[in-house]
Amino acid sequence: GMSVGWHADDESLFQGKFRDITIISISFGVKRKFELRLNWPEEGEELVTEMMLGSGDLMTMEGMAQKHFMHRVPKEESVQGPRINLTWRWVLKHSPQCPSQ
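Predicted structure:
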């Protein structure tokens, strides 16, 4: 199965490391594991939280999640079949050349 490694959606145009943001994601197709990992876990805290995203599941990552967590879709050899994920992010920091300025 396909995978996406550990990352945060922290590109400067989304401002996720500096202010509260919302990212919305919807999955279609085969069910996949989604994992969140704290960047700086305290003693006794769980390192990784996992959930299953099935077809039609809507997920949000809100607030300062992109500053404090990384996320991934891990490789799962036993999972076969198509999956599409659509993700909405809002551009909050526009460049001087941007027509929205």
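Summary: The CA atoms of residues 70 and 79 lie 22 Å apart.
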